[in-house]
Design brief:
Blueprint lengths: L11 H5 L7 E5 L3 H7 L5 E4 L3 H4 L11 H13 L5 E5 L9 H15 L3 E5 L5 H9 L4 E6 L5 H4 L12 H14 L3 E5 L3 H10 L4 E4 L7 E4 L1 H4 L16 H17 L7 H4 L1
Helix pairs in contact: 2-4, 4-5, 5-6, 6-8, 8-9
């Protein structure tokens, strides 16, 4: 756990200044212990609403409540001291009006002590991005494949396969950048489109399934650790945690069945 004196976090302007420079490293985390490990290497940590699926077994992010984001946001802030912590605004908490978005985002900032929020949507959310930013709430935007709109989009499809759609995505990126977003996530986007957007706007692009042409990359931690039995195709799996946990649980079950509790000898004798 961090004490105030040893907390020195990456800042929003510091992150924006990385545009075109050293690639930005980002991961999701929902949990104090994993966040403490990620904190040593990541520039920012996203408490993503993907936690609905990863932590709570939901089918999509649509059902994630604000209180759940706040609970996990607090855990991640408590477990970290150097990364910028960004908390996702869940579906239904920011789309209705800029004022409603401000009310809910201010709650997230106050209760979690995070450094910024993320909202999905491009041109249609630009007014809200501006409203929040002008009132002291830094906003990371999220365009391309936006999972909260998956019911409208007809699933989780890579965006920009048809070149005719590129101008819309480019307009989204420009609109959120002009409205004051400090960075933008490009999710599920073909490489040439991600490269064009990255070259057209003055804020960092953070790719997820959007190629190495972006200014940084984010992955869902559990996907890259090998905990998801069906990770998205673009994810490089760096760990085999699912298999390691299974082996450990199986060894434990064997010990218990044999009444062999190594390590407890010193406690009970
Ligand atoms: O919710 C999430 O984890 C995200 C990332 C996939 C960018 O939004």
């Amino acid at each position: 756990m961090s004490s105030h004196s040893d907390i020195r976090r990456a800042t929003v302007p510091g992150l924006t200044a990385r545009k075109g420079g050293e690639p930005i490293v980002a991961l999701t985390s929902y949990h104090a212990h994993t966040a403490a490990i990620v904190d040593k290497y990541a520039d920012f940590i996203l408490v993503g609403d993907s936690l609905g699926m990863v932590m709570h077994g939901m089918e999509s992010t649509v059902g994630v409540p604000l209180d759940l984001m706040i609970m996990h946001g607090k855990a991640v802030v408590r477990g970290t001291r150097r990364a910028l912590i960004v908390v996702d605004m869940p579906f239904g908490t920011y789309e209705e009006s800029p004022a409603a978005a401000f009310r809910n985002a201010a709650r997230v900032m106050k209760e979690t002590q995070c450094g910024a929020v993320k909202i999905e949507g491009g041109a249609r959310m630009a007014e809200t991005v501006r409203f929040l930013t002008e009132r002291g709430i830094p906003v990371m935007a999220h365009i391309g494949l936006t999972p909260q709109s998956s019911h409208v989009m007809g699933g989780f499809r890579t965006q920009g396969r048809d070149e005719a759609d590129w101008p819309l995505h480019e307009a989204d990126a420009k609109a959120v950048a002009e409205a004051g977003a400090f960075a933008v996530v490009l999710e599920g986007m073909v490489e040439p489109l991600a490269a064009r957007i990255t070259g057209q706007i003055g804020i960092p692009t953070i790719g997820i399934g959007a190629s190495a042409t972006c200014d940084g990359q984010i992955l869902v931690l559990e996907d890259m650790l090998g905990l998801n039995p069906r990770p998205p195709k673009f994810v490089r799996v760096y760990g085999r945690l699912g298999a390691a946990i299974e082996q450990a649980v199986s060894d434990y079950a064997t010990d218990v069945r044999q009444r062999a509790f190594p390590g407890e000898d010193q406690v009970y004798r």
